[in-house]
Specification:
Keywords: Signal. This is DUF4374 domain-containing protein. It comes from Algoriphagus yeomjeoni. There is one protein chain. The protein is mostly beta strands. Among the domains are: 32 residues, no CATH class; 212 residues, no CATH class. The chain contains 6 helices and 32 strands. The protein has a 5-stranded mixed beta sheet with strand order 5-31-30-29-28. Strands 7, 8, 9, 10 and 11 form a 5-stranded antiparallel beta sheet that branches. It starts with a strand and ends with a strand.
Length: 445
């Protein structure tokens, strides 16, 4: 969320300012909910199929309209016939500026994998690429995970975990190693990208150990993603995807007793002093897939979703001491009265309200859920759901004041932009999204 620094010139200004804003719990800088952006473009993104319908492996197209057009059901948007193809061999990893005037992209896999591009949004299929680009593949690989921080469009964080190996575990070739096994670890890369100057501003590479007991059992961090800056802007919290190896065979284990949900906390902007924090509430991963999975809320705390959680997805809270608050328990299974709830993507809106795109046991399709993080309640938004509606590759939401824009299209079928009021959870149908066989729309930016 944006933060505003106030110069209190007089006591009267101080009093009136405090009446209009709410401050973070630690007495730090106030956190201001997002306002509406006049003249903002709404950019929709669509993924083309590669081999199979809905795989999104054929590249990514984008098309932009005004807010007024996005809200009008009579507007017809066909990103696949009138849109612009952004650089990416497979599904692009897109981010947008806070005012919607700029798109940021890092190409995913292929000859240009890891190449950062910046595009000016001019409406329709008119996107102009900046003359300056940078490739981060030599540091973070050709398939980096990355997200833009909410810091005024200054910084993107790219992450990678590579070369996971044992210090000395038994293998078929070496069943009796001469030194004892201690751990499986990979080399983590954390890279800061200056979004305005299109250059790498900092990067580090190191191993991130777990506890001796956890590592001795074969647990390790498999992937890093879903980074978020804390309220004080001095720590970066990074989500993890965990893995466990059988230390006797070296094979990965698909079914194992999971540890509590873990995040990596590093100093910002140096990325020094990595530490691992663990939730006793959630037991799933929290790296997300192609979208933000942690958000700084108006109350100054960070809220984080889990996936692959044996008890269904949770929303976890990280307090302003950069530790999990295990007194905060918000289970989506319990709140919705369902089982196997999985948050595919989600978005914090304002004033404790948020939306999640979910799947759950016994249902073929995905659903949109309205959440009140303060009350810890959730309900399914009233929408026309289709058996071919999937959200597993969904990336982007736009928050504009109380409005949240979501693209909802079943694979290979037409759909719509829906504008959902974050105060009430009520959805209004917007522009029609014209689809093609095998394709689907994956976000709004």
């Amino acid at each position: 969320m944006k933060k505003q620094f106030l110069n209190f010139l007089t006591l009267g200004v101080l009093v009136s300012s405090l009446a209009l804003i709410s401050c973070s719990d630690n007495g730090g800088d106030p956190i201001i909910p997002p306002g509406e952006t006049e003249g903002r473009f709404i950019t929709v993104a669509g993924a083309l199929m590669g081999t199979n319908p809905g795989d999104g492996n054929g590249g990514t197209m984008v098309y932009s309209v005004t807010k007024e057009e996005a809200k009008d059901p009579e507007t017809q948007i066909s990103v696949y016939t009138g849109g612009f193809g952004v650089k990416s061999n497979r599904t692009a990893r897109l981010q947008s500026s806070e005012d919607g005037s700029t798109l940021f992209n890092i190409a995913y896999t292929g000859d240009n994998g890891g190449e950062f591009s910046r595009y000016t949004v001019n409406g329709g299929g008119n996107f102009v690429q900046s003359d300056v680009s940078v490739n981060i593949s030599q540091y973070a690989g050709t398939s980096p995970r990355w997200l833009k921080l909410f810091d005024g469009d200054k910084t993107g964080i790219a992450l990678n975990m590579a070369n996971i190996a044992a210090n000395n575990a038994p293998t078929e070739e070496n069943p009796n190693p001469t030194t004892p096994f201690e751990y499986y670890r990979g080399v983590a890369t954390i890279l800061a990208l200056d979004l305005q100057e299109s250059l790498i501003s900092n990067y580090v590479q190191y191993e991130i150990p777990l506890t001796e007991e956890e590592e001795a059992a074969g647990h390790t961090i498999f992937r890093l993603d879903g980074s978020v800056l804390n309220a004080a802007k001095d720590k970066l919290i990074i989500g993890t995807w965990m893995r466990k190896y059988n230390v006797a065979t070296g094979e990965t284990e698909g079914d194992y007793e999971r540890l509590g949900s873990k995040s990596v906390v590093v100093d910002y902007p140096s990325f020094a002093n990595p530490t691992v924090i663990t939730s006793a509430v959630g037991h799933g991963d929290n790296s997300g897939y192609r979208s933000h999975y942690s958000y700084l809320a108006d109350d100054g705390n960070i809220y984080q979703a889990t996936e692959r959680d044996p008890n269904g997805s949770h929303i976890l809270r990280i307090n302003q001491n950069n530790e999990y608050d295990d007194s905060y328990v918000f289970s989506l299974n319990n709140a919705l009265g369902l089982s196997g709830v999985t948050i595919e993507a989600w978005k914090y809106a304002q004033n404790g309200k948020a939306f999640a795109l979910i799947s759950h046991d016994g249902a073929e399709n995905g659903f949109v859920v309205w959440m009140d993080l303060n009350a810890r309640t959730a309900s399914i938004v009233d929408l026309p759901y289709d058996a071919d509606l999937e959200f597993n590759q969904y990336q982007g939401f736009v928050v504009d004041g109380a409005d949240v824009y979501i693209a909802i299209t079943p694979v290979g079928k037409n759909g719509n932009i829906y504008i959902v009021d974050s105060n009430s959870g009520v959805a209004s149908k917007g522009a029609t999204l014209v689809n093609q066989p095998g394709n689907h729309y994956i976000g709004i930016f």
